Structures are given as C-alpha cells and as structure tokens.
Amino acid sequence: MFTALFGAFESGIIYAIMAIGVYLSFRILDFPDLTVDGSFVTGAAVSAILITNGVNPFIATLFALVAGFIAGSITGLLHTVGKINALLAGILMMIALYSVNLRIMGKSNVSLLNIDTTFTNVSDISASLGLDSLFNSMLTAFGLGDSLPKTWGILLFMIVVTLVIKFLIDLFLRTEIGLAVRATGDNKKMISSFSANTNLMTILGLGLSNALVAFSGSLIAQQGGFADVGMGIGMIVIGLASVIIGEALFGAKTIARATLAVIGGAIIYRIVVSLALRVEFLQPGDMKLITAIIVIIALVLPKILEGTKEKSRRAKRQQLVRMKNVPSESEGEASATLKSNS
Amino acid sequence: MLHLNQIHKIFNEGTPDEKIALDWTNLQLKEGDFVTVIGSNGAGKSTLMNVISGVLIPDAGSVNIAGKDVTFLPEHKRAKLIGRVFQDPMAGTAPNMTIEENLAMAYSRNKTRTLRRGVTKNRKDYFREVLQSLNLGLENRLSAKVGLLSGGERQALSLLMATFTEPKILLLDEHTAALDPARAELITNLTKEIVEKYNLTTLMVTHNMQQALDLGNRLIMMDKGQIILEVNEQEKANLTIDQLLNEFQRIRGAKMTNDRALLS
C-alpha cells in the first residue's frame, strides 16, 4: 500500500509539470490544446534516443524541452497565421506528431533499462549522500518498515524541479510579456489595442506550454525506463483532470495559488488512480475510463453542489416570506390573481 | 497630426450586399484638435475609426499619423501611436487581471515589452497617482480584479488606460453609449478633463448630439460614407441640436431617421 502511494506521489509530481503546461494553454490562453498528446511523446522520444546514443541525460532532457516548444509553436502558427480552429489545430498537430515520434524513435518502443538516465544519476547521488537510509530509517521508526521505497532521490529531486518550474512560470506571468500573454487569453481586443501582437503571444504561450509537457514526458520515460509511441494517449485529459481537481480543491485566486493547486491536483489524480486500480475487478486498461469519469465528476459536482445550495437558500427565503405573511395561502393566491388581472 | 487622404472602403464588393462604407473621405486633425463625429447608423463612423486604428485596411487612400504613413501598419504596431476606448465597457480591460496589471499593460503600450516585472513598486506609486484623478477610489483597490468593477468604473479605467501614456491620437468610439445617464456624464466630464490635461488629439464618435456639441472644438457629420458637414470652432460654439438637424435635412433632403440620434 505504502509503496503504491509512494509511486503515485513520485510520478504525480513528474506529471505535475505536464499539468502546469496544460494550465498555461487551457486556463491562461483559454486554448484547449490537444497537441499535448503528441508533444508528451515527442519529449520522451527525443530524450530516449539521445540517451541511448550516449548523450548526457540532463542535456537530452533539455533537448526534449526545446522539441516541445517547437511543436507547440507550430500549433500556435496553425491557429493564428493559418486561422485554423483551436481544437482542430491541436488535433492536426497531435496526429502529425504521432508519425514524427515514430520517425524519431525508429520503432514504436525504446527501452532505457540499464542505461544511465537523469534519475539513475539522481538516485546514485541520493544514495551516496545517505538520504535514502535516513528517510527509510525514519519510516522504520514509524513502523512502516516492511515495504521501503528503493530510492528517495527521485522524489526529492522532482519536488525541487517542479517547484522551481512553478516559481519560474509564476514569475514569467508577472513580467510585461507574461501580462500580455495572460491578456491574450482574457481579452484579445483589449491587449491588441495596447500594442501587443496577440498572434506572437499565442505562439509563445503554446510553445512554453508544450515545452513543459515534453519535459514531463521525457522525465516519465526516464523514470519508467522506456519511451513508447502510445504513452501520450489521453494525456490532455489527465492534464485537464489535474487542473480541474487542483483548482476545485485548492482554489485558484492568484496565479501562484493556481499553479500550486495544479501540482496538487496532479498528485491527487495519481493517488486516486492508484487506489482505483487496487479495486479487484478493475484492470490497468480501465485507467482511461477512470480518468474520464474523474474529470466528469470534477466538472459536474461543483455545479450540482451549487445548485442544491441555491435551492436550499431559496427555500429558506420562501419560508421567511411565508412567516411574515401570516394570512393563509389562499389569500396570497387571491391577491396574486388580482394583480395579474389589473 | 492625423491625415486621412482619399480613403475608400467597400464591403462585399461585387455582391448584392455591396456597401460603400467610406467614399473617398478626407479628414485632417491638427495637434490638439478634438473632433466629434455624428451620423446615423451605417454612416461610416465605425469604419472610419477602424481604418485609423488599423483593424481595417482601406481599399484606396492613405492614413498618416504624426507625419508617418501607417496605412499598412498592422493594428498592434499602430497601437503605439493610438489610444482607444470602445463602446462596450467590458472591451477595454482584462476582467480576470487586477487593476494594477491592467494599468501595467497599458503603460507598455508605447514601449517594447520585456521580461521585466510588469508591476513594480515605482509603477504602483505612479498608478495610484493617476487613478486618484478619477476620484473613484480605485487607487485603494489596485489588486482587485477588474471584473469586479461596475461598468462605469471599468469605462473610467479604460479611458485612463488609453490616455495616460499620451497617445498621438485618441479614438473614442461611442464610449458613453452603454452607460446610464449619470455614469455617462461622469465619463463625459472625465474625457473633457483628461483630453485637456494631456492636450490629446481626439476623434470621438457619439450618438448623443448634446455631447457632440458640448465636447471638442470641431464637429463633423457623416452620411453614406461621406463627411457631409464640417463645423469649425467659431460656428460650433453657437450651434444647437435643432440647427444640426435642419442642416442635415437641408443637405440630404431627408429627415435624420435615427431615433437614437434624435432622442439624446
């Protein structure tokens, strides 16, 4: 149980970077960008191929970032210069990237097992620093010693990386350019009357968004030990689930709050999925269905809650009115008909 | 400051819906001119504004602002020279961003945007100072989201945002038409104050004839894509609404049909 939750938390914090990317396109730019399904794999494919060819894993991961940025920028170009509908531009790019990813990898699956990746490096460092034994002895002290995680390095490293990315994005969105990107999603007419090139802002925003998605894909491939051409299917929905769950649970009053909420949402999503998969009759293949159901619940539930709240508020109000107008109901009806007659 | 030379613009050319929006129109504004534009619906007022701001490119003719030919300059580049306030109070501000962020974006209008912070401490002080001139207490709500403001407050903020960086040309497109009478008066007074303060060269479209007479030093009347009447400073001082309507009838041989123009 603990190992499962630990694993969910660990991959959740890696997926959180992808979720921040989806937040950028979906919330900041108000652009439902389906490129994500493709660019996630592009990130994984680029870094997997570079790593298997002996490139330093850290540099390979940076290349994944750049590849994602290019993919997102192309979607932006299709939408702004090509005037293609946002959803369609994303779908076209997603389909196109499927072939591109196959070309990059040369086959549908590249294994990274027994090769040095970012995470094997990180695990080694954490082991040599004695972090693993430190945390594990703490766990044992709490009586959780029977299933200890192999390494704490990945988790600690990813918490730092994800938080750094979160702070950089927060900072960026407060710069002059960042404000213009946000306004492009909020009120295009306004910001173009204040001399911002909204096309450029959309391209930049989508580029950044997909750079983060590809970065996340690259890290997931290195954590899981493989890059697969199908690993991005449904990624946009997972991203949306993280954004929506996060915002619903932790609020989105300010940008800094919202990005933190999205990270929380990504982790919670992973934990929910790993718990759901422990239910006996569910299989790993049901995951996409579970994801869709989680998103639907997260979208519908707040509306239903609001509705019942509103209903009970109205009922209370009506009761108050009835208490004031002590005379019987029929009298009230009579006066109502009178009014409608006059 | 602004020079429109032989502007021609046709919509849906070659179809049954063909409409000449601007018919070889000429207009010149000197520095500090405040021109009010009146005319019934479809007279070409909005097209005129859109041609100046770069939303539309004219089929023929040239647009010249501050000695620079901007006819084919895209909207966002031209915006460095032009401040605009729209009819819809929601159009001129970003609702999900704070007052200070909106002002910071307006502040960058005539500058190149960089990766510097948009809202710095110095700028905040400056924003507070310019907001005080509105007398709406907005200087105490810098970090409130603009979506929370009322229509009147938002339009006052839009006006401030369009003007405090002193654009070469200020375009006001019926910017009081969507407000209730009290708010409209507030914005009208603010407009007068601000335009005088910065000595802005201004073009204002309005359906409110009284407003067209009260504000500005010149007045033009448009119909069917043409400027049919130009009133200079001396004539404008003594002009009444009745005279304006009679003038229209005399020129066009028809009554001005637009109720909206008559009523206000």
Largest interface: A-B, 22 and 34 residues
Number of helices of chain B: 10
- Radius of gyration of chain B, taken over Cα atoms and rounded to an integer in Å: 19 Å
State the end-to-end distance of chain A. 72 Å
Biggest β-sheet strands, sense, barrel of chain A: 2 strands, antiparallel
Strand order of the largest sheet of chain B: 6-7-8-3-9-10
In short:
The complex is a heterodimer of chains A (342) and B (264). By secondary structure, chain A is an all-alpha fold. Chain A has helices spanning 2-28, 36-52, 57-80, 86-105, 118-129, 131-141, 153-172, 176-186, 188-193, 198-224, 235-250, 255-276, 287-324, 329-341, and strands spanning 109-111, 226-228.
Textual characterization of the structure:
The complex is a heterodimer of chains A (about 350) and B (about 260). By secondary structure, chain A is mostly helical. Chain A is about 75% helix and about 0% strand. Chain A has 14 helices and two strands, in the order H-H-H-H-E-H-H-H-H-H-H-E-H-H-H-H. With about 260 residues, chain B is an alpha/beta fold. In chain B, about 35% of the residues lie in helices and about 25% in strands. Chain B contains ten helices and ten strands. In chain B, helix 5 (about 150-165) runs parallel beside helix 6 (about 180-200). Chain B is globular, with a radius of gyration of 19 Å.
